[in-house]
Design a protein that fits this description.
alpha/beta; 346 residues; 2 domains; 16% strand; Aspartate Aminotransferase, domain 2; Aspartate Aminotransferase, domain 1; homotetramer
Chain lengths: 346, 346, 346, 346
């Protein structure tokens, strides 16, 4: 009954196999290897266009490098006020960006609405020399509240952002979960909807530690190799990070793993709803936020269930309830979900 | 005949096994796991004292974080002018340190002499507000020239550094190779010789991607956890980096692997000397720098040998010779060395 | 009828005289001069304690250097959401602090309440490695809304801040205006109320370009000289900035100038109230925020009055009114105020 | 007998007058004033082309902002190893540039030769991802050794720099002294010789505290206004810095003041030569470096002469001599020079 986080899961077997298989002979370091070339090609194929791809070992540094690359030091990144980059990365984007500012926007269920974005851009005081200049919009897909942006929503937001000359970035730590839910291609959910660059996550999805920064306009990625190196995020035995991503993408494994995680979230959500603890936000990825009675919370923990209580982020809950976050992963077993639900029901 | 770099080697089998074994069930992310606790304990045991340990995925970020932690933004790091931190990290220490300055000192065979250090500190213009303030001495062990500092040499340099209030850092990307050569304990070669903090390398030695920043005074490591996170170098599935280091240290594996690499370097050196191409610097670790005839260079490459030509760094070679660098690793086979030497002899 | 800003005023005659008088012979640069020594002494006298003082030419760099000195790169500065440091300094504190985060708190009339501060500190997610660590509270005195913190209010906020280990900083660009209003000494309004460091403003008050960073615990100012130099804010012909501050402080000139500005603001406020345009926030310094009919706004501008319209910052005004900001200075003439009010009345 | 530094001089009378005259009525802050517009126009006229001009209060911040604007964070600035930016600015360029690297080149008499520059660029290890990328060449005009680059020398260096895609910057803290010596126009000594941007110094030349960053291609200066503001170097009462520069440029005052300082240096040099203490480097600006007997040094100091001993920077002097630096300024009196020389002769 482990629902604390998807990064508490291990490595998907096919990915571990790929690491082991890559461990054969010598390969030049720093990305001058066949695995890297193949995975770059695979990304281009998958996104149906030329892309510039940079592999890094962790999601925070993917976001920080990506945002620093499209935001001048006097620039601002607009994001949801509860976005991971704003609250859980200890100032990494600010550091990598040389002191850029993250501007948090409000929004229900972790999502920024077009009205909110438009109003922030049109009515805020922006621009030099006294005010920072908005340079990027960063969307979390899926969001920190387990919801997702539909392609049309991304398009609408991107259009507003582009009209104000902002680059559009997606923090895709859980992009697989979002895509597995929607009936759209990776291209449709990203650059065809106006996305300029992407932190493509694999770690939460089943890799050991592998993320990719993807520029949909390769020219925009110029010098990211330098930035990555001096940012300390270039791995020397690079073939092993490339091998992870290659296996993750092969045959759509990433979407299969994500779909399983989503299914487990749905199963949790259904059980919770049936038990009178319906999730507070739509369950669209692999996270479920449910208000449960405080004594149920205790009972679940006593039974060994692992999960976090969560700040209600503006929602008002009955006094005797607490909001909990349940995260599923590729590794979550239906039996675990069912045991959790049985314990919930008491 | 692969001698281009030790980071072109793969993962030592025991370390790959450890990754696979760690892939069992769930573990909290970010270092809150048993593997991390065990490896921290193991470091303390090995160094015979309490230490503060921070694991990171790459050597550049280990150095950059370590140096930034002991150098104020208006400070300088003194190092050999050909040190990796000065020449091969694309300004990472400067970036992580908020604009610190690296001051390169000259020195034969990659080593800084006590006289050079003393003179730089005593005769340079240092100190605020106009000049930067020396804050750290960084020594590469083994050096970029394949030589090593004996414990007594480190002690002498540390004494000078400490008398001027500098912290002493070791870039130990190849610390195992240095230690395997000397008959001293890890403690004797580090804190007992005055070293304050260490970038402990495992990647070049046989890991997939794992380094440790070690503070010998744990208090000095306060807030390094924050710096590491905002520096993008905290891995979420942290157990797998800890597992690598645990296996690397277990039973002295790291020293065994290093000793093998050193032996292969010695074998190369002996053959080169016999062929009239004696190494230009003492072969004390796993790197051999030899001046070979230009046509031999061509013949070796034609035969498939992989290695780099190297700038002679102040040495004057005969016109018809070129300096080459040969790096061995845990993976180097004696047969490969012998084939290389046979080809060399023509 | 010039009420656009107090930095549109010139130099107070006594200060200009002091510059001219200082222009006699030679004086060592960078603060090694008699003017600087005298003004440092004068600050200590005025604050009734030993202080460390660093002169800089502008308010933004005073704030940025001060905050950077007490906030580690992974730290946060809590301030009012409309504070100058948060909205009008183009990210200078973030830049000088190596990527620190400014966290804006809400509050009526530009002031942070104890409840708001306590709740932010107790209920926010703070601390490493994932979240930034609050390191400083910055209060604007007077505030951007023309209000002031009483010494007892500062004390209450400082106590909360100190209990959470935050340093307390005052952005005193208009400190003179605040002090001229209250019946307390500079010491009582600062360190006796718990303030740790201060950006002491003279430019808006009548200097040409002179501010002082004051540390009430001199030890805390260690190395600020280095930070100031590398921050580009150390003037070479330093005697002239010291001379400005010496004249500003001499005989309480700064408070006399501020009192005049405050009186002019009161005169404006009284006239506005009489005309049915009572200020929306208490007029406690030299700024008046008044909701005036839109056609009156036009009439005033047509008559040559200079002032800015201002965002209502959460207030709801009648549709036919606009909020304007009127700033007075040492240079404001009563006749100008009266002419403005006459024009207002139509 | 004050020869310690040209920044120990005061304000040239015409410049102090200009400050006083500008102190009339109100003027919008931050450069939105007539003085600023006029001085921008004057710069364009003087340089015979459209330029982008940004005024700042000190030379260090002028250099740091200028270099940061043309050097990416992973870039390097090549300069003479004894350049002010490399040795006397406490790391300001590194800080403002987000961790850029300054690479010091050797060179006789403070000057970089074309051969040295060419060799550094062609033979150094440059470029991503492992090495920093040279992005700017910075020349000091006059140099720290009191010598100057002729226009043809600048042209030759610029051609090499441009061929390697570097921007060419001049640290013109003493540009007036250099120009007063040569029979060329400001345009010929800068952009017509390939210079891309300039730190134009006025402070050492006679201003109170005023420097200008000049971009000869205005497009290249885009967003410097933002960088200056967040770098803390935008003055609010901006008319007074503009007034200083306006007076400095009016009627060629800056060249007249510089010519006087140069003449005083020549007078010193002639006297020193006659006394057997011929300067070690050509006296081409307002600095004289002379090896004097140690007992003469004592006698001069005892007589009240103010000057610094100077490191011989590679020269070997007789044991009984010490190198001294004498700096003249617009304020230096012939009688002072003569008294110094008389004392020297004993």
């Amino acid at each position: 009954m482990y629902f604390a986080s998807d990064n508490a899961a291990g490595i998907a077997p096919a990915i571990l196999d790929a690491i082991a298989k890559a461990n054969d002979g010598y390969a030049l370091g720093y990305g001058n290897d066949d695995w890297t070339r193949r995975v770059e090609h695979r990304f281009a194929e998958m996104f149906e266009r030329e892309v510039a791809v940079f592999l890094v070992p962790a999601g925070t540094v993917a976001n920080a490098l990506a945002l620093a690359h499209v935001t001048p030091p006097w620039g601002a990144v607009l994001c949801h006020k509860d976005a991971h980059i704003a609250t859980d990365e200890c100032g990494a984007p600010e550091f990598f960006g040389g002191g850029i500012k993250l501007v948090g926007l409000p929004g229900t269920a972790g999502k920024i609405s077009p009205e909110t974005l438009r109003s922030a851009l049109d009515q805020g005081e922006w621009g030099g020399p006294h005010h920072v200049t908005p340079a990027a919009l960063s969307l979390s897909q899926a969001t920190e509240s387990g919801t997702i942006y539909r392609a049309s929503e991304i398009k609408e937001l991107s259009d507003i952002a582009h009209a104000h000359r902002l680059a559009v970035h997606i923090d895709g730590a859980r992009l697989g979960n979002a895509l597995a839910r929607m009936n759209v291609s990776p291209a449709e959910a990203t650059w065809k909807a106006g996305v300029d660059l992407l932190s493509f996550g694999a770690t939460k999805g089943g890799a050991m530690g592998a993320e990719a920064i993807v520029f949909f306009d390769p020219a925009r990625g110029a010098h990211m190799a330098d930035r990555r190196k001096r940012g300390g995020a270039l791995l020397s035995k690079h073939r092993f990070i490339a091998a992870q991503l290659e296996a993750f993408l092969a045959g759509g494994l990433w979407l299969k793993l994500a779909r399983h995680a989503n299914d487990m979230a749905d199963r949790l959500a259904a059980g919770l709803s049936a038990a009178g603890c319906a999730p507070v936000w739509p369950v669209e990825a692999n996270e479920v936020f449910a208000p449960i009675p405080r004594d149920t919370d205790k009972r679940l923990k006593a039974a060994g269930a692992a999960f976090y209580e969560w700040p209600p982020l503006g929602l008002s809950l009955p006094e005797d309830r607490t909001l909990i976050r349940l995260v599923t992963s590729f590794q979550t077993m239906p039996a675990d979900v069912d045991k959790f639900l049985a314990t919930l029901r008491g």
